Amino acid sequence: INKKRLSVALVIVLILSLAAGTVTSFAETNQQKLNRINQEISAARNQLSASQAQVSSLTGQINVLDGQISVTSSQIAQTQTEINTTRASINVKIQELDAKSAEIVKQNDDLNERLAAMYKNGEAGYLEVLLGSTSFSELLTNIDMISRIYQQDEDFMQQLQVQYDQLADTKREL
């Protein structure tokens, strides 16, 4: 019986020692897995922190670009307003130019008619007016009248020249 007990005791000790080795081996394998998982978690946290920093940096860049877009949009709107104002000014100038051109054409036509009438009548018309005076006072009145007509013609021609110059200036402005 002693031998049997001793054999059973040896088998039990042997089984326990094998079981203890397996448990120790199993515990070490789980510890290695736990360490590996902890390393992976640590690496993922580091990557998450880096990604969050990158997102933060990109958000800052987006905010800067949004600000620049806003400023540029304001500048575009201001420039468009200036363009519209300039176009309206040009249209007003063109209307003024057309009106001035029409006025000059009319005055030029009037002057041409006057010059044509003067050419047809010649100097004899003025001479006839002066010689047809019946008194000295009528002569002086006729001389004054002819002088005024010449002065008006001269003023008219100077005014016409000024209008031509203004028209040329307006065209250059456009």
**What do the pLDDT scores average to?**
83
What would you call the structural class? mainly alpha
Unreliable stretches: none
Oligomer classification: single chain
C-alpha-based Rg, rounded: 56 Å
Largest beta-sheet details: none
Shape: rod-shaped
Q: Count the strands?
A: 0
Which features does this protein show?
single chain; 174 residues; 0% strand
Would you mind describing this structure in some detail?
This protein has 174 residues and is mostly helical. Helix content is 97%, strand content 0%. It contains two helices and no strands. Helix 1 (2-131) runs antiparallel to helix 2. It is rod-shaped.
Task: Briefly summarize what is shown.
The protein is an all-alpha fold.
Detail the topology: elements first, then pairings:
Blueprint (H helix, E strand, L loop, with lengths): L1 H130 L4 H38 L1
